[in-house]
Write a structure and sequence with these properties.
Layout lengths: L1 E4 L3 E6 L2 E6 L10 H15 L6 E6 L3 E3 L4 H10 L6 H16 L4 E5 L2 E3 L1 H8 L2 E5 L3 E3 L13 H9 L1 H10 L3 E2 H7 L4 E3 L4 H13 L3 H13 L5 H16 L2 H11 L10
Parallel strand pairs: 3-4, 4-6, 5-7, 6-8, 7-9, 8-11
Antiparallel strand pairs: 1-2, 2-3, 9-10
């Protein structure tokens, strides 16, 4: 396994899987400007790397991500409240966009506490593997703020608008079991099994039809709010594009020959 590290974000590669780890375990992987900048850079880099077919996002230590580092935020407010939220356009929005739109699956390996922007990041991923001991929360209204990191949309899509309103307005924490019941968690596992479970899932996806995953990911994201004729038109266009790929043709021939298809991303 080749590994590349910065002080606050590490990227480890195993075959076609890149695991991006938030690396401030002593501070719950709280989001400083340094970490956010490094995370944006690394996500954009793996998104554009054709050798990477699956990305895993996780946190070092006992937390996935506790959200914004409030000590740094307090310093920014004292310096100039008018510019304290420039980080949204500079960091948060590009990070969530990279997670949600990169043309490959992204797995959130939620190893522990996941609140605020950390929850937004996890929900921007395609699949979530969650530790049974993980704790969740929106946190924003508790400090007099509203949602960022796409949470107002992604949380409502995951749990429904009524429950999302309650979770945001009351700001109460909730458990991994509740996250599973409400539709946030894809797979709930013991804490010690989060990393291996995410790795196994990543390996499975990395061997799959990358181009089809990209089209499916796009379709699922864009279908919200579209009229049925527009959804059907978009699906038809995507199928036509995939029909021209070697992966599709080879998979059909493999099926007819009762063989397992091999997907190359072409």
């Amino acid at each position: 396994m080749a590994e590349e590290r910065s002080d606050v974000v590490s990227v480890a590669r195993q075959d076609a899987v890149a695991t991006v780890t938030l690396n401030r375990p002593d501070r719950g992987n709280g989001l400083t400007a340094e970490l956010k900048s490094a995370l944006r850079t690394e996500l954009e880099r793996v998104a554009g790397d054709d050798e990477v077919r699956v990305v895993v996002l996780t946190g070092a230590g006992k937390a996935f991500c506790v959200g914004q580092d409030l000590a740094e935020h307090a310093d920014a407010l004292r310096a100039d409240p008018a510019t304290a939220f420039a980080t949204i356009d500079e960091h948060y929005n590009p990070i969530v966009t990279a997670l949600a739109t990169m043309p490959k699956p992204v797995i959130a390996a939620v190893n522990g506490t996941c609140v605020g922007a950390g929850l937004g990041f996890a929900l921007a991923c395609d699949v979530r593997v969650i530790a049974e001991t993980a704790k969740f929360g929106t946190a924003f209204t508790g400090i007099g703020l509203t949602c960022d990191s796409g949470l107002s949309a992604s949380l409502a899509r995951a749990v429904g608008s009524a429950r999302a309103s309650e979770l945001v307005l009351l700001g109460e924490t909730f458990t991994a079991a509740q996250a599973t019941e409400w539709g946030i968690a894809g797979r709930l596992v013991p804490a010690a099994e989060v990393a291996p479970a995410a790795a196994a899932l990543a390996a499975r996806l990395a061997a799959g039809p990358t181009l089809a995953y990209a089209e499916a990911k796009r379709a699922l994201a864009e279908s919200w709010g579209l009229a049925l004729p527009d959804v059907l038109r978009a699906e038809g266009a995507a199928q036509a594009r995939l029909g021209l790929t070697a992966d599709h043709r080879n998979a059909v021939e493999a099926f007819l020959a009762k063989e397992k298809p091999a997907f190359t991303g072409r």
